């Protein structure tokens, strides 16, 4: 039998909580866009403004809802609890007139609202059923997506993609439009609910590493693991190492350019000898001769430069057309790195004859004015956190840093890699001049626009105003949450999104993990999912989803669990990769299974089947 004293105490707590919600509601303007969602957001913030675990424990003891699943319909859930307890205690329940005066959404209406908002952004059919969660799949299109009649886009569409992402940080309006035209052809034969949406990602302000000095370095040819095919070509061609052709996704053999005179004498069956840049001797066997090239097998890895010779019987040739290469800047823990805003090329540390550093390694920063805001002792992360440094000194337009995070074998610092300043407030508009120009290029085909580096409500309003100026307020606005400053302003950002006709949030977990610390990412994800649930805003779960599956056609165990967690969001974003269609099938299966067990964070008690 239920403890009456416990019930009385719990009802008092619920009454106090209802009064807090009423106060929060009174501060919400009735003429606000999407008033009911904004009201529920305010209710949720009131709910989470105090420690409610003592109340939850009381509710748990009575087998009542402990409010952990109430975020989309806070007031309605609390009113239901009030009525349950009041009825059990033979006290007066909430009247229909009082419920109507509160103007909050009922539980079923809240679920329906969230479903409609998701459908508006990602397509599909809206559903208010408790027993079903719908998670759309978004795939990033590579530069060549429209080539060959757009066969890649067609294949991805047939695999189950709901949204295609076009990244304006790459390519040009011509490529973006070509992709959109193929998608339009695919959509022509589909019903309205099955049409694939186009998500255009605005690049935002770029904070990246600068260009690195190019030097004469030996080119690596062959492999120590097995014999490899190489191509022998005339000196008009370029000597290069083995590369990956992203268009065909096939390995292309390395290429050795020889002097035309030597090349003309080659015959099938010839054995050639190379003395490489380090004096190592290696043999090659000519296996096939075509009109413009010869195929040969090389027995092991060599490094060729301008001094390298290749011989056949009594004749010899140098290696022709060896290109300059980006200087390798390999950083180890304890090394010094200078980050500069000056117009200078990056370079590795300069050493004297004894191996002592006479000039520190240097790399440029593309975003001018940020370094002056950084203080000594602050941390900076480069290339998705692969390199971590601490500022030890400041000079004019430069920071002298000590490497604090790098793999044991060192990490190669590369061009055009992201730089994160998690302890520095970088107050810059998310919508750059270039973004504004790109918006105009995609207005006639974009369904949604994402706002990279969104850090304030003003950023959302700037894009909203731009779309309104061009009479395209129907285009959805997605705020990419990727900085610590965005989290500080997250409530204001969400409220600004509610003022848009269609809107949502992307959890950009790559940069966000660096900004908040990898160990804190899981709790930050939860906070964002819960907050957006309260505002009935769709969420995109992004960054490294099934990345190993995309690259190698085999997911890691952790990736499968991560993909299942992504099923709580309204959309999951996959990056481009060689095994995209296979990855979509895997993700669809994972989502199908997890949606039989969970909707958002609610456990569904379907009939369980156990492995025998």
CATH class of the largest domain: Alpha Beta
Strand-residue fraction? 15-25%
CATH architecture level-2 label of the largest domain? Alpha-Beta Barrel
**Terminal residue distance:** 39 Å
CATH topology of the largest domain: the name is TIM Barrel
What is the CA-based Rg, rounded?
A: 30 Å
The number of E-state strands comes to 33
Largest sheet features: 8 strands, parallel, barrel
The percentage helix is 25-40%
Structural class: alpha/beta
Tell the overall outline.
elongated
Task: Give an overview of the whole structure.
It is elongated and about 110 Å long. The two termini are 39 Å apart. 33% of the residues lie in helices and 23% in strands. The protein contains 18 helices and 33 strands. It has 612 residues and is of the alpha/beta class. The protein has four domains: 102 residues, no CATH class; 252 residues, Phosphoenolpyruvate-binding domains (TIM Barrel, Alpha-Beta Barrel), CATH 3.20.20; 106 residues, M1 Pyruvate Kinase, Domain 3, CATH 2.40.33; 94 residues, Beta Barrel (M1 Pyruvate Kinase, Domain 3). Helix 2 crosses helix 15. The strands form nine sheets. An eight-stranded parallel beta barrel has the order 1-2-3-27-28-29-30-31, surrounded by eight helices. A seven-stranded mixed sheet has the order 9-6-12-11-10-14-15. It has a six-stranded mixed sheet with strand order 21-18-24-23-22-26.
């Amino acid at each position: 039998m239920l403890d009456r004293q416990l019930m009385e105490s719990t009802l008092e707590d619920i009454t106090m909580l209802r009064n807090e919600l009423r106060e929060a509601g009174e501060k919400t303007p009735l003429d606000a866009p999407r008033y009911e969602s904004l009201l529920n957001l305010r209710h949720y913030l009131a709910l989470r403004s105090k420690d409610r675990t003592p109340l939850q424990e009381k509710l748990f003891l009575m087998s009542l809802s402990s409010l952990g699943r109430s975020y989309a319909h806070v007031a309605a859930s609390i009113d239901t609890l009030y009525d349950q307890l009041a009825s059990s205690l033979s006290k007066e329940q909430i009247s229909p007139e009082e419920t109507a005066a509160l103007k909050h959404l009922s539980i079923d209406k809240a679920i329906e609202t969230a479903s409609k908002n998701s459908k508006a952004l990602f397509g599909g059919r809206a559903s208010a059923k408790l027993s079903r969660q719908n998670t759309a799949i978004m795939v990033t299109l590579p530069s060549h997506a429209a080539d060959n009649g757009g066969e890649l886009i067609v294949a991805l569409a047939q695999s189950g993609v709901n949204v295609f992402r076009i990244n304006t940080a790459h390519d040009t309006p011509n490529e973006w439009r070509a992709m959109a035209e193929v998608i339009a052809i695919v959509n022509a034969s589909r019903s309205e609910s099955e049409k694939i949406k186009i998500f255009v990602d605005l690049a935002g302000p770029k904070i990246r590493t600068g260009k690195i000095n190019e030097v004469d370095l030996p080119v690596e040819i062959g492999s120590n693991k097995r014999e490899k095919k190489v191509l022998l070509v005339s000196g008009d061609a370029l000597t290069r190492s083995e590369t990956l052709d992203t268009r065909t996704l096939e390995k292309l053999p390395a290429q050795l350019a020889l002097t035309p005179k030597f090349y003309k004498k080659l015959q099938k069956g010839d054995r050639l000898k190379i003395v490489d840049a380090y004096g190592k001797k290696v043999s090659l066997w000519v296996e096939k001769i075509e009109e413009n090239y010869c195929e040969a097998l090389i027995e092991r890895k060599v490094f060729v430069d301008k001094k390298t010779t290749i011989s056949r019987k009594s004749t010899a040739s140098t290696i022709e057309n060896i290109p300059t290469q980006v200087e390798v800047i390999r950083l180890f823990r304890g090394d010094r790195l200078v980050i500069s805003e000056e117009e200078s090329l990056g370079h590795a540390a300069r050493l004297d004859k004894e191996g002592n550093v006479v000039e520190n390694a240097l790399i440029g920063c593309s975003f001018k004015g940020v370094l002056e805001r950084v203080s000594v002792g602050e941390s900076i992360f480069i290339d998705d956190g692969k390199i971590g440094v601490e500022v030890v000194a400041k000079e004019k337009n430069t920071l002298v840093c000590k490497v604090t995070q790098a793999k044991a074998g060192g990490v190669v610092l590369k061009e055009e890699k992201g730089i994160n300043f998690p302890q520095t407030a970088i107050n810059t508009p998310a919508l750059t001049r270039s973004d504004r120009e790109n918006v105009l290029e995609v207005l006639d085909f974009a369904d949604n626009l994402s706002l990279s580096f969104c850090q304030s409500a003003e950023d959302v309003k700037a894009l909203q105003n731009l779309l309104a100026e061009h009479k395209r307020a129907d285009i959805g606005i997605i705020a990419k949450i990727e900085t610590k400053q965005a989290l500080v302003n997250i409530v204001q950002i969400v409220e600004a999104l509610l003022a848009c006709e269609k809107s949502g949030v992307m959890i950009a977990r790559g940069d966000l993990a660096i900004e908040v610390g990898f160990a804190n990412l899981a709790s930050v994800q939860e906070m964002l999912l819960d907050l957006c649930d309260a505002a009935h805003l769709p969420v995109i779960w992004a960054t490294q989803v099934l990345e190993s599956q995309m690259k190698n056609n085999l997911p890691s165990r952790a990736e499968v669990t991560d993909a299942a967690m992504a099923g709580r969001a309204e959309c999951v974003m996959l990056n481009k990769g060689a095994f995209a269609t296979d990855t979509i099938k895997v993700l669809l299966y994972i989502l199908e299974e997890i949606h039989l067990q969970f909707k958002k964070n609610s456990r569904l008690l379907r009939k369980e089947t156990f492995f025998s």
